[in-house]
Amino acid sequence: MSDTIPQSLSRRRFVSLATAAVAAGSLSPLAFAQTNRPIIDVAQATDGDTTAIRALRVHVPESQLSDLRRRIKTTRWPERETVADDSQGVPLAMLEELARHWSTDYDWRKVEARLNALPNFVTEIDGLDIHFIHVRSKHENAMPLVVTHGWPGSVIEQFKIIDPLTNPTAYGASASDAFHLVIPSLPGYGFSGKPTQTGWGPERTARAWAVLMKHLGYAKFAAQGGDLGGVVCNVMAKQAPAELLGIHVNFPATVPPEIVKALQAGDAPPPNLSADERHAYEQLASAAMKRRAYALEMGTRPQTLYGISDSPIGLAGWLLDHGDGYTQPAAALTSAVFGRDVNGESAGAMTRDDVLDDITLYWLTNTGISAARFYWESHFNFTAAADVSVPAAISVFPRENYQAPRSWAERAYHNLIYYNRPEKGGHFAAWEQPQLFAQEVRAGLRPLRA
Description:
- This is Alpha/beta fold hydrolase.
- This protein is of the alpha/beta class.
- The protein has helices at residues 11-23, 29-34, 62-73, 92-104, 108-116, 159-166, 202-215, 228-239, 257-265, 275-290, 293-300, 307-310, 312-320, 331-338, 352-365, 368-376, 406-412, 429-432, 434-449, and strands at residues 40-42, 54-58, 120-125, 128-135, 143-148, 179-184, 221-225, 244-249, 392-395, 416-420.
- Strand 7 (221-225), helix 8 and strand 8 (244-249) form a beta-alpha-beta unit.
């Protein structure tokens, strides 16, 4: 192919087209540089001490938000699925509606203001920058609590529980139920650093959280988590640092070894199971067969997911799909995106903008793949019995992946101080039912205060 400009294209016309391309950001080194500018400001460490606690503030350049909207609007869409349900993945109509709102009406600046209204910090632990939100209660004798989010979540998941937990008297609870909250971003997530070497899995993260709490001056603390946050809590409980008072999890690891073996073999439920145990077995079997494709890919080939780093819609589709669409655990996300109950599944307090706040954070920080690597770094069954002896509280929400039976919980957590089944809520309980979630955390950890 000739490199020369055709005679029919005048020099003036060529310059005009080139100028328009630059104005649109196409092939423009300046535009590329603008969309890669830092989105956070971090205070300088005194004397070069990177382990110091440094304040963090978020400000995304407008050029990056414009680039996001442009990419959404120029998405190359596939054809519609050939089924009338979600069995082939996230439905085209759902993502098209999300894209319309995301590219026209959605306002990132609102969540940016909420982030900056909270005390955000960074400190280096074991060679990696860890971002965290730290909100101290005004109440004397508040319990220090580190709360860990999961995937595809972020610290944005926890926004609605901050005030109920730090300021319980405003919500009809006692001042004696107050917490000092520390809410970190997992390694490779949000504003935390992206590991450049292997090894940052649940075990190293749990140890880092203990270091973080000591950095903040807390001699004793409790830990809370759901999804991957629950995994980190369980690992921390197994490590049992002297400073750890106990844990509360809403994604418990209770499945006995013989049940894990039967599930892996694809066996029918053992005949000696109780009704609760049989129900849990069937839920786990269904999850293993239908809902684990995303985890298998991230656990084995996370680097292959280049599309979620290049396409906002590719990222959104990946973060929204748990292999179950209109049931659980993605039901609340689906209903939030549509702004109505889908198949009778409620989003609770979760809104479409809540979902987009989270997805946009992944996009702006380009952490789709670095977050996925956390699965690659995890080398055990997340639901297998935790086998821990530190005091543990469990909340089994009715729309969780599986309803952990009390009988299994008592075998897995040898010092079970609380077990409850709330009336509503699902996998993203802090998002969906923040008030009920806060009540569960207060009640679950109350025995530790004595």
